[in-house]
Structure formats: structure tokens, C-alpha cells
Amino acid sequence: MLRRVEEGDVRALHRTRVASRRLREVLPVLQLDADTAAKLGRRLRKVTQRLGPIRELDVLSNLIDELAGAGRYSSRALTHVSAAIHRERDHARAQLLAKGTVVELTRLAAKLQKIAASLKTEEGASVSRPAAGRGWTWAADARVARRAATLRSAIADAGAVYLPERLHVVRIAVKKLRYALEVTADVAAIKVTPDIRELRRVQETLGRLHDLQVLIDRIRQVQASLTPPDLTVWRDLDTLVAALEDDCRRLHGRYMRDRDRLVEICQRLGGADHQEVRRQKLEGRS
Description:
The chain has 286 residues and is mostly helical. It has 2 domains: 1-128, no CATH class; 130-286. It contains 10 helices and no strands.
């Protein structure tokens, strides 16, 4: 993906950022040297953070195109916001390349390939030592339990009132629990589980809500910076905000319907009973 990231490919940038998040979830369970794991984790987090602003602007640009195609929103207001976002995105891309991010990514990829090769060599040796294999599997289960506890806490903090910042924390926690579960599913040679499907569905709902809320914030910024002031455009933007806020409330209602199911998943994955069942299954395989 890296060459395509440098070329400005939207999909490649998104997949690279997702890969950096997934790798951060895998590293702690691979039983690497602590210093190596910590250093790689920091470098991957830096990648996620650097690509984040551009990814957000790409999402907003696509969202505006979608809203324009729906025919339910002010085209004049969307045009003003789109122009502002495109200018900001071009500036962010230029900054990304100026910082040498792609070069840094290439070096990081080479380092990860070396680690992958060494782990593959060690995997053959661990066949005769089942305890070694169970060790990192238990580490993955422990990470799932921790992620489940974090999500449950975030859900409780978010409450029932629409608070965008707290719902964003829930969205991130859902994503991290999903990635951790996907690691354990790989261990069991399972492509997808009902819990992963449910988390993915809720993540999509909260992701859409977050994108709309970010767009609302951008529209407010455009309103405040209109030069020269134009009352007609200002009103068009205000009408657009009101329509998007209605969409946010509907999505929040969908999340509230799913909340109890999320809590049930967290309780089950974070409970001692779940960990004991997994332990017995692994011991049975050995």
C-alpha cells in the first residue's frame, strides 16, 4: 500500500492506518522482547496519529459527496463546506509527504517483516512445546478481557444522553475489542464470530455518528469564517446543521437499542468463566 499512499490513494491510506491499529493490538501478545515491542508500538501509534487527520478529511469529503447525491440537503451549503475541506486536505497531504512519513513507513515495514520471519522460525520450535503456544494464546485472551472491561466502563460513562465526546470513546473501545477478538479468532482458525459481527455493526453505527458530528463542527467553522459575511449562505449552513443533528439523534437511538447487547458481550468476554473455558479447551488440545 505504501507507494499508493504516497500517490494519495484514499483506500490505501485507510488500509495502512487500519493495519497500524491491528498491529498495535497483536504486538503485546507475541512475547517479543519488551523493549522491542514498546518501541514498535510507539512507532505504529505515531503512524496512526499522522495518517489520522488526512483520513478524517477523506471521510468528510466522501460524506459530503454522499449527502449531495441524496438530494435532501442544501447543495449551496455543501459546496461551501466541500471547498474548505478540499483546501485543508491538500495542505495536510503536502505536510505528510514533507515529514517523510512514507519513508518512515517503509523502514517500519522492513522491521516488521524481519520480526515476522523470526516468529515463523520460532513457531516450528514451539510445536514440541505446547506450553509456549498456550502462553501467547492466554495473553490474547487476557487482552480481550481487558478490552471488554474498558468498553463496559466507556458505555457506563457515556450514559443515555447524547454526548459526542463520550460516544467517541465508546466507538474506539468497540474497535479495540473487535481487533482483540479477531486475534483470538485467528488462533482458533475462525474467520468471524457472532460477537465480532455485532461489534462491527455497532462500530459502523458509531462511526457514522462520529463522522456526522465532525462534519457539523466543520460547518460551524465555515460559518464563523465566512468572508465577506453572507446571511443567505449562513442560513443555508444552519439548515444543513439542523438536518445533520437530526441524523445524529436517529443514530444515537440505534446505539441505545444495541447498548444492552454490548454490555452482555463485555460481561461474558471479561468474566472468569469465559477465561476458564478457553483454558480448558487449550489444555485439551495439548
